[in-house]
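User: Okay, second chain of the day. Same drill as before: sequence in, structure tokens out.
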Amino acid sequence: MKKMMILGLSLFSLMVQAQTARKFTIDLTEDGKAQMVCFLPVTPSGKAIVGVPGGGYSVLSNGHEGYLASEWLNPQGISYFVVNYRLPNGDRTIPISDVEKGIRIVRDSAQAWGINPHDVGIMGFSAGGHLSSVISTHADFDVRPDFSILFYPVISMDERVSHKWSCVNFLGEEGQKNPELVRDFSTQNAVRRHLTPPAIIISASDDRLVPFVTNGLEYYKAMRMAGNDCAMYVYPTGDHGFGFGPWFKYHKQMLEDLKAWLDARQVPKPDAVRVACIGNSITDGHGIDMATAYGYPALLQKKLGNDYWVKNFGVSGRTMLNKGDFPYMNEVAWKDALAFKPDIVVIKLGTNDSKPQNWQYGKEFKQDLEQMIKELRTVSPKARIILCTPIPAFKSSWDINDAVIINEIIPIQQKVAKNLGLEVIDLHTLFANSADLVQEDGIHPNDKGVGRMADIISEQLLNQKK
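Assistant: Same drill. Structure tokens below.
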């Protein structure tokens, strides 16, 4: 029996070597306590996955929840990197920094390793699934993955409904007593519309260690409620910890499901023209179910094609005014938009500024708009910046005032555009007498309306290139 096991391991090693062009290890810390084991395929497809093993934040289960996946990933041309992170012992920043450093190295080395830097995902198992979801929801733009694969993930840090020792080891005994920390790192509470990357969740219904209903399902619900792309596969049996082990009854089916999901993802070209859509609820997609797929920026992406990469940085209720009730430039979305380093920026703000509590600071609208343009040109000096005027407010819902929009906000936008050399799309005029293009609130475009916006903006981008 022992000889057969040794023979099996040898055959596995030979198979991996046959599909893996290079295998090497990188120290992530000077003392070598955190490492990244790299598996580069013979024929890289451009896709890369950073693996995060489980183990309850007390050990690393990096066999079937780590290295074994290379046998499946490398033959498909997927570059694979297993991060053997340091255990937190109550200091959550330790494993977070190790995984973030691994992702940064992969992106920095993308050209040398045949990787598309916009197609770098993360794959975590159990506690590693929690860590992967933390990186997906909390990390800065430059180290946030492009997609997440979460195997039977710990999501909640509430030990009453989750895996107790994962919670204690990650947050520490004192952290567990802090309701704000428990809430923040229960990552279903940290999902952000448009900004949290697409995810696939893989679990077994009979998981007795990490209850699916209070963990993986909660993350899926949060993603779906935000309109973000998320898939969920729950197999009838398998309990916890099956990973890439061939003993899992649904192993073959699981691999087929995962492959289908990965293959279906639309990936921007490395040299795609970056288009940042900045705005309030109209950009965000208020009232449009699954706005990530059906809002105006998503429709704009379809019209522009794969030579462009359109990202939605809209946030509902936000103002251009920095003294408004909810200033856009205070948002993570603004920070992300700058980190995106766009080639084209489409700005549609001003609607919420017309509310009385905001327009009392209207004298500062011009300087705040100019500040936004200055910051954009600092990170993207050659960016093509397009100002969209607000569409008409057919009703005074939420105290939005169309007279203020027409007589005060739009003239300021036009003056700034002239002074700073910006393009203007006059959506207010183009949507005039088109109440059929907005929802019942008289403010937000309906499905036809967002389609019209995408038509107008795509025509401007394609027909008036600089």
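Residues 1-16 have pLDDT under 50 and may be disordered.

User: Thanks, on to the next one.
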